[in-house]
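Design job #97: recover the sequence.
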């Protein structure tokens, strides 16, 4: 329910209701607020944690829980625990040993209304937004005096008058030839124990007048597969098809990539094929292995 890392469209790119992810997380929650709380800036979580493996991730989400139960993600932060001390010199955790770590959230601005609750949800996984470590990780927390969630609160209640823009609709207009379409869905194989997240984004054909009538279309198809009990089962597959045409001139490219991992390496396989109106004119296939280090 995390949405895209970099959102381009409200059609499924934004994070959805967080209740499903919260159900698999360690959750802390306030009572309903008696008055509004405004934050502007970067929340931070300091917490004392031990894990049962040398490497692992912590993901913390700040959630606005509405009176009807809907859970809206306000901000989140991710920490690869190998980088808890230094972003340039990673070091493994000692399994079972507690350390105080800091998770910095993304910058945000939000107003929690009266009657809403603030929720902090902590997990060790956030697939497919975050690649899992080589083994499943269990985290244990020691909520001592150094454990705290710091919110960048502001007094609030003020109003800023902003003049209407001279051009209220400045984006360029493109003539649509075929409709666009977006789909996102999850399938669970209860026998194999696999969960598959599918993404299909089709821009449709649009004519770009400023490019002498260039007609463009992009089709993106992605599948993310994992067995939640086996991190090394994770597979990411992506296929892009891009077409450009103007009059009798027509070109098309297709690219396919596949990412898997074992305990020591990430494995990437790719293929790129280019076509013109007469057929295939270029093809490249490649594969590479990237050492995981402490990822």
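Job complete. Output follows.
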């Amino acid at each position: 329910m995390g949405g895209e890392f970099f959102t381009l469209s409200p059609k499924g790119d934004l994070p959805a209701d967080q209740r499903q992810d919260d159900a698999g997380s360690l959750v802390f929650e306030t009572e309903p607020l008696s008055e509004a709380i405004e934050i502007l800036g970067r929340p931070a979580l300091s917490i004392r944690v031990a894990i049962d493996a040398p490497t692992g991730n912590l993901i913390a989400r700040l959630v606005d829980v509405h009176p009807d139960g809907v859970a809206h993600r306000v901000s989140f932060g991710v920490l690869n625990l190998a980088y808890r001390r230094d972003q340039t010199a990673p070091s493994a955790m000692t399994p079972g040993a507690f350390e105080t770590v800091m998770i910095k959230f993304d910058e945000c601005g939000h107003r929690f209304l009266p009657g809403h609750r603030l929720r902090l949800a902590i997990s060790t996984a956030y697939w497919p937004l975050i690649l899992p470590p080589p083994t499943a990780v269990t985290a244990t927390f020691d909520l001592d005096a150094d454990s705290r969630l710091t919110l960048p609160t502001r007094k609030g209640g003020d109003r800023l008058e902003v003049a209407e823009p001279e051009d209220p609709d400045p984006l360029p207009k493109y003539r649509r030839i075929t409709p666009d379409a977006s789909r996102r869905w999850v399938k669970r194989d209860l026998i194999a124990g696999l969960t598959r997240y599918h993404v299909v984004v089709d821009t449709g054909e649009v004519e770009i007048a400023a490019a002498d009538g260039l007609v463009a279309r992009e089709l993106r198809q992605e599948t993310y597969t994992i067995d939640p009990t086996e991190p090394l089962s994770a597979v990411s597959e992506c296929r892009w098809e891009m077409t450009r045409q103007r009059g009798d001139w027509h070109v098309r490219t297709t690219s396919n990539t596949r990412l898997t991992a074992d305990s020591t390496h990430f494995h990437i396989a790719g293929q790129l094929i280019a076509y013109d109106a007469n057929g295939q004119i270029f093809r490249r296939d490649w594969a590479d292995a990237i050492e995981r280090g402490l990822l």
